[in-house]
Design a protein that fits this description.
The chain has 239 residues and is an alpha/beta fold. The chain has a single domain, classed as Rossmann fold (3-Layer(aba) Sandwich), CATH 3.40.50.880. Helix content is 27%, strand content 27%. The strands form 2 sheets. A 9-stranded mixed β-sheet has the order 2-1-3-4-11-10-9-6-7, sandwiched between helices. The chain has a two-stranded antiparallel sheet with strand order 5-8. β3, α2 and β4 form a beta-alpha-beta unit. α2 crosses α3. The longest helix is centred in the middle third of the chain and has 14 residues.
Length: 239
C-alpha cells in the first residue's frame, strides 16, 4: 500500500522554555503516535498558527487539526481561513480529524456550538465511552482512556453530525459527520512526561488551577495508540 499523505494543521506554537523548548511540537507528537504503527505516512505540516492552510484539498490524502492552548471562542489570525478550509473539506468529503482544539473548531465551522465548561479546567485521564461504532473503529474497544486538558467544550453538534462518545465530564467527547469527519476532545498524542510538564507549567502561570488531581492520574493507563489505529483505518478507507 502506498504511503498515506497526511497534512497536519498545527494550531499551536509554544514558545515557553518549560514546554515548547523541552518537547517536540504538536505535529511531531502526532507523527510519533502514527509512526508506532506498521502503516507508513508521508507528512506535511502546515503552520496554521501563522495563517498557513492548504491551498488545495488535493495536496494531501487526509488532514488532521491539532490541539492548542488557544480558545476557539477567541478570534485568531488563522480563524477565518481555517473555518473556510474545514467547510471545504466537509463539502468535498475530504477525510478530516480534529483533536481537542481541532474537535472544537470543526464543530464551530459546521455551525455547532462551543462554550466554556461550567466547572473550569477538565484535566487528567478520562475514559471516552464510545456507544456508537463506525467501521474504522478497529480494534473494537468500547472505552478508551486518554489525556484531556480543556476548559472549552462542544455543547451542540453540527447539523448532520453524530455523537460517538462521551466522558464523565464531557458529553460531546467525540463525533463524526458522514464517513469523512472524525473528532476527539482528548489528546491521544500526549505522553506522561509531556502531560506532567503542561500541568505543572499551567499551575505556575494560573493560581486558580489546582494540578493535584491531574498529576495523580498521570500514570493511569491510556489508549491513545488505539485511537491512532482507528485514525489509520479511517484514513485507509479514503485512500
Amino acid at each position: 500500500m502506498k504511503r498515506i499523505k497526511l497534512g497536519i494543521l498545527q494550531t499551536n506554537h509554544d514558545k515557553s522554555v518549560e514546554v515548547g523548548d523541552a518537547f517536540p511540537d504538536d505535529a511531531h507528537r502526532f507523527r510519533d503516535l502514527f509512526d508506532a504503527q506498521e502503516i507508513r505516512f508521508e507528512y506535511r505540516v502546515y503552520m496554521t498558527i501563522g495563517g498557513e492552510v492548504p491551498k488545495s484539498l488535493d495536496e494531501q490524502d487526509a488532514y488532521l487539526i491539532t490541539g492548542s492552548p488557544l480558545s476557539v471562542l477567541d478570534t485568531h489570525v488563522f480563524t477565518a481561513e481555517l473555518i473556510s478550509f474545514i467547510r471545504s473539506c466537509d463539502l468535498a468529503k475530504k477525510p478530516l480529524i480534529g483533536a481537542c482544539f481541532g474537535h472544537q473548531i470543526i464543530a464551530v465551522a459546521l455551525a455547532g456550538i462551543v462554550k466554556k465548561t461550567s466547572s473550569g479546567y477538565n484535566v487528567g485521564v478520562e475514559k471516552t465511552h464510545f456507544f456508537e461504532k463506525k467501521p474504522w473503529m478497529q480494534p473494537n474497544i468500547q472505552k478508551l482512556g486518554m489525556y484531556v486538558f480543556h476548559e472549552d467544550e462542544v455543547t451542540q453538534l453540527p447539523e448532520g453530525a453524530k455523537l460517538l462518545g462521551s466522558t464523565p465530564n464531557c458529553k460531546i467527547a467525540s463525533f463524526s459527520k458522514g464517513n469523512h469527519i472524525f473528532t476527539t476532545q482528548a489528546h491521544p498524542e500526549f505522553t506522561p512526561d509531556f502531560m506532567t510538564s503542561v500541568v505543572t507549567y499551567t499551575a505556575q502561570k494560573d493560581q486558580n488551577f489546582n494540578p493535584q488531581s491531574a498529576l495523580a492520574q498521570i500514570n493511569d493507563p491510556t489508549e491513545g495508540h488505539v485511537y491512532a489505529d482507528w485514525c489509520t483505518e479511517f484514513f485507509k478507507g479514503h485512500v
